[in-house]
Sequence to fold (260 residues):
Amino acid sequence: MTPTPPGTPDIPVTPGTHPGRGLTDQTVVVIGASAGIGLETARQVRAGGGQVVLVGRNPDRLAHAARELDPLSTAAFDATDTDRLQQFFQELPGPVDHVMVTAGGPSYVPLADLDLDAAGREIAQRIATTLGVAVHSRDKVRAGGTLLFMGGTGGRRPAAGKAVVSALTAALPALIANLALELAPIRVNLIAAGFVDTPLSAALLGDQVEARREELRATLPIRRVVGPSDVAALAVHLMCNDALTGGTYDIDGGQQLLPH
Fold:
């Protein structure tokens, strides 16, 4: 064991963490906080002693989340509106420690049904929103804090209907790595999720959602379906571990290990 230098407080330190702190007294902005992964992340931040600022498109759902979580503040707007996004960060009363963005979802449309204008808007909005958060938050996030974005793993395997989502799946890790260099010492990371059992997943699959859950329970190495709390726990870890930046972190219960 390496001796402790004279005069050094006898406090055990684990590399890559904030010793004794976690998220205590830290402030986390959650964009997409009114449901699913965003809402669960906000819950875990509050349970860990942190404060939250909640952003969501739906005012009613956002108000419901606010009644549960007692946030510092809320803001109801669409994060793809980059002018409104800029205004939001400008109006934050003080610095924050972390920003997590869960807004948006995947689109699976075969070429035969593809609306080129809609596809172009989806790609442009996803990239522009990521860049917009990076540009407009950089003067508000404390050094060593985190910008944390959501992506996916499903688009890594080519298949009919995945042209748009595959393009974004490939683009986002490269964008995140570049932002981590440009925004340092702010850290920038990407969570790439497989199927997560959220209201959005249920809406996308409709009456097929229970069959999908059963299939995953039977085939995933973890023998259960990944839920919002699993992803939220990873998000909190990425906020707390200050050795992590520029990376893409998969969470899919081993879904990518399965054959087609």
Remarks:
- The two ends are 49 Å apart (CA to CA).
- The longest strand covers residues 141-152.
- Helices lie at 36-47, 59-69, 82-91, 116-137, 163-183, 199-205, 209-219, 228-240.
- Residues 1-20 have pLDDT under 50 and may be disordered.
